[in-house]
Amino acid sequence: MTISQTTDTQPARIVVDDLTVTMQLKDRSFDAVQNASFTIEPGQTLAIVGPSGCGKTTLLNVLGGFTGATTGEALIDGAPVGAPDEHRATVFQADAVFPWLTVRGNLEYGPRIRHAQDAASKARTDHFLQVLGLEAFADEFPKVLSGGMRKRVDIGRAYVNNPRTILLDEPFGALDEITKEQLQDELVNLSVSDPKTLVFITHDIEEAIYVGDMVAVMTPRPGRIRKIIDVPFARPRPENVRMEPAFQELRREIQSLLRND
Ligand SMILES: Nc1ncnc2c1ncn2[C@@H]1O[C@H](COP(=O)(O)OP(=O)(O)OP(=O)(O)O)[C@@H](O)[C@H]1O
Ligand SMILES: [Mg+2]
After folding, report:
1. Which residues form the ABC transporter domain (predicted)?
2. Which atom of ligand 1 is nearest to the CA of 61?
3. Which CATH code is given to the segment(s) 12-95+164-258?
4. Among 12, 31, 62, 76, which one is least packed by beta carbons within 10 Å?
């Protein structure tokens, strides 16, 4: 099933230009993000890896419109990032499903509160229930779902709104390896069937390579972008791509950048 895309829901182009975010503490200030620059072309996934506290969430919060730039700028489709709106969706590590709504109710929540429930949004709900393997659970409440299923609900909820950009902050951090790999596959498959511009934050180097078209490696505080690496593998990812020498070589390169070798 294909979902019609109107021109105003085309994936976004994101440009971050010399962005610095300075945090003010009681007696001092420091840069949580320093001089970050990158461009994400429409429909591409930028994965960001970096040590804890290096400013990944801060960077994502700027793109989400939750935190302002101190200097430099972040542009979405040529305009400075504004207040959060329906063109951007965020998926956090902790799942954010509403326990009082069924799985279908969770997916329909966004269109419903925007008074945008129509035949197209219903078709999108059915589509993502199916793509994410949630159909059999559509009328169940979240309490019967596993952690992986709840994450699928979060992802479905983001996609149903048909945003231009989806920001994901360590979304699979709490899942076991197998479930994590299944969800990585689903996300990569979605990037083919329903392209969105994705920013995907993770601690996990393999995950960054697997889901990213590019991997941005950040330095420890103050968070700078150390290097942006292009990922050469096809989408959907070839089976066993993680075992390929080229994949392992990228993994080693990123590991060594993170260690500051
Ligand atoms: N509102 C705030 N005020 C002051 N300092 C903050 C604020 N938010 C974050 N920080 C600090 O900014 C730095 C970057 O934090 P951030 O949450 O962006 O890191 P992170 O890379 O997402 O870390 P993690 O991998 O642990 O999630 C940290 O030192 C943090 O303590
Ligand atoms: Mg964080």
Report:
1. 14-245
2. 18
3. 3.40.50.300
4. 31
